[in-house]
Amino acid sequence: MEVVISRSAESAQKLAATILADALRAKPNLVIGLATGRTVEGVYAELARMHRQEYLDFSLARTFNLDEYIGLGPDNCNSHRYYMNYHLFNNVNIDKRNTFFPDGLAVDQEAEGLRYDMAIKETGGIDVQLLGLGRDGHIGFNEPLSSLASRTRPKALTPETIEQNSSLFEHPEDMPRRAYTMGVGTILEARNILMLVTGQAKAEILAKAVEGPVTSMITASALQLHPRAVVVTDEEAASALKGRKYYDWVFQNEPKWAAYRNI
């Protein structure tokens, strides 16, 4: 795992967007795993800007979202499909037929999880998976005690996740209590993983995820097992990291990061 610390949340979002954009330029038919949430909105805004001003081409890209609420259809304003259309897909030249989500209205929920994993496999797998970090250390909706070998499946949400996310609903009581999520095992099969974490509120849990033991209580800690995982963070979220000097040294000296040092 590599940790890159940017001076601000805005620069961290720009750096994450630039990493994704460079991967897309290198492989126009890139398969991208996408996340939702406040943290990544700046990433999508920057990618849309790159499309408008720098002709970043999404026409051959394919995407798979991490998760979707059970019980919400794609036209529901709180569905993750609606979120992605609003923040990214409507603002770039992607073919929406190549953007995939679990079906929140599927009748057979267990079969839907299996179908989604198979769809990922049939594309050849995810090239770059974008992640955020939950306040309890979850990735996707892999709440504490999720198996580190889990696959895409329906999952009960914790009261903490419901409390955090229900503020986004006009009527908070309408927030679903269950969601589909890629499993930790599904996520770890991506060739590259890019996790973006910003803000002081995430400092302690980020330190546990990156530098603590690998544990199902903090599902993001499983990223320590991945050979090509990068964490992009800001000064506030990095404030509890013990390995700060080394992370900075790697960023300043490894050739692969030379093009990103002025972001």
What this model shows, in words?
- The protein is of the alpha/beta class and 263 residues long.
- It has one domain (2-260): Rossmann fold.
- It contains 8 helices and 10 strands.
- It has helices at 9-26, 38-54, 80-87, 109-122, 159-165, 184-188, 203-211, 244-253; strands spanning 2-6, 31-34, 62-65, 67-69, 99-100, 128-131, 153-156, 178-181, 192-197, 229-234.
- The strands form 2 sheets. A 7-stranded parallel beta sheet has the order 1-10-9-6-2-3-5. Strands 4-8-7 form a 3-stranded antiparallel beta sheet.
- α2 (38-54) links the parallel β2 (31-34) and β3 (62-65).
- α1 packs across α2 (38-54).
- The model has no long low-confidence stretch (mean pLDDT 97).
Tag the structure with descriptive keywords.
seven-stranded parallel beta sheet; three-stranded antiparallel beta sheet; 8 helices; 263 residues; 33% helix; Rossmann fold
Q: What is the succession of H and E elements?
A: EHEHEEHEHEEHEHEHEH
Mean pLDDT: 97
The number of helical elements comes to 8
Percent helix, as a range, is: 25-40%
Query: Given this structure, which CATH class is correct?
Result: Alpha Beta
The percentage of residues in β strands lies in: 15-25%
Give a quick account of the main beta sheet: strands, pairing sense, barrel closure. 7 strands, parallel
Biggest sheet: strand arrangement? 1-10-9-6-2-3-5
Class inferred from helices and paired strands: alpha/beta
End-to-end Cα distance, whole Å, is: 21 Å
What is the CATH fold-level name? Rossmann fold
| Structural domain count | 1
| Low-confidence segments | none
CATH architecture descriptor name: 3-Layer(aba) Sandwich
Overall shape: it is: globular
How many strands? 10
Based on CA atoms alone, the radius of gyration comes out at: 17 Å
